[in-house]
Amino acid sequence: MPACQAKNFDVAILGTQSPYAVVAEYQGLTADGHFPHDALQPDWAEIIRVLAATQTPPGESFILNIGGLLFDDLMQGSIRDLWVEARAGLEAGQYLRVRLNLRPPAVAALPWETLADPRRRRTLAADKALALVRTATDAEFVGRPRSIQTKLPAKILIVAVEEADAIDASAEISHIQASLSPLLPTHLQLEILQGRFDLQTLRRRLDEYRPDILHVISHGETDGLYLWENDELTLVKASQLAAMLGLVDSVKLVFLNACLAGQPDNTAPYAGLAQRLLQTGIPAVIAMQFVVLDRAAAAFAGFLYEALVVGPCPGAIDVATSIARSGLYISDPDRIDYATPLLWLNAPDGMILRWTDASPQPASSVILASSPDVLPPPLVLEIEEKERWFALLPLSIERAELRFDYPDRRKQAEQILRELRQAHEAQQAGEPVDFRRITGQLKKFSTERRLVDNLLEKLQRTEP
Question: How confident is the model at residue 461 (pLDDT cuts 50, 70, 90)?
């Protein structure tokens, strides 16, 4: 799939104390350097405290400055030369997968998802040509991961824990269901376990359903998740969850939409919940390294699954995570939300689903005008309303930190709109319409429209 070709830029940070050794590798070339920072240093402990403050957003400039500091002290000398070569070497349809292998616990505890190029004043999380992931290859702590690719239909289990302080699980589940709908039930199957349940109930459901993707909505800590036990919310330890999931070899991705479940322990290697799950052989884990607001968690889940289903690289979890981060960044760059989700990827690539090439099209994907007895309801395209919205968009915007994203979003919306217009005219003429593709394009247009509207709304809020 030409539009989904990735080149890996691998960074390993090693050692037991500062300055740490750095080894970067790209296309068979290596570069060495040193890195001075870790989370145990007083300045960094304070920075992380500020970033993690939910009620007081740190602000875009602060986050970019922190990401720029990490970037500059990582990309020095020959490593920077290799980085420049990697960026310049990307061809059309390619992206760079930046894989961070952070061995020292205190280095892993730094907020690497804030990485930003200070010269471009651009966060890597919002760069469409990059996918930022963490990886773990230390055989002393992590075994060989299982294959990441699922068989069709892929099974998704959403686990939503009822809580007294009301996590908005229903909104998040609705986001996910809407995002997955183009491929349900032919290519994806979805089950939901919601309410008050204990670890044994969850274990039985996992054994019975054997999901490929496990999505958990709960409150969490660095060393566990909250489930019900004897009518009380109880912290289930990371070791218990890891032991349970180690017995379910169908799971390829665990998405822990639970605060702090992704935060690495800054003193002990692989002591955090997300890292413990990697030890079971699960090849991909998404988790939150800071406390996250319910609305941001729900939005991230919606962005992620939508990109996984109908994004520019369908089926690739690393690309989907990058797009979802970008969506949160565009919504509010002053908050740390976009840098809160952390993706661990212990696989050669992120292609967890391969329905585009590996499976036949569903029988109803092409709707023939000559077969009225099998026609579904006509697609409601509302093309005139969409074209009116697009006609009112400005050609460009002036604000420096937004003007680079806006033209791309506008162009993407224009291209999708052109295809929807063609589908509308085909329907009017009674010609064949690719039902599945146009349904997917409608969802993509909705996403691009939301992102463009968020950009313009932010611009309006900040204008004097």
Answer: low
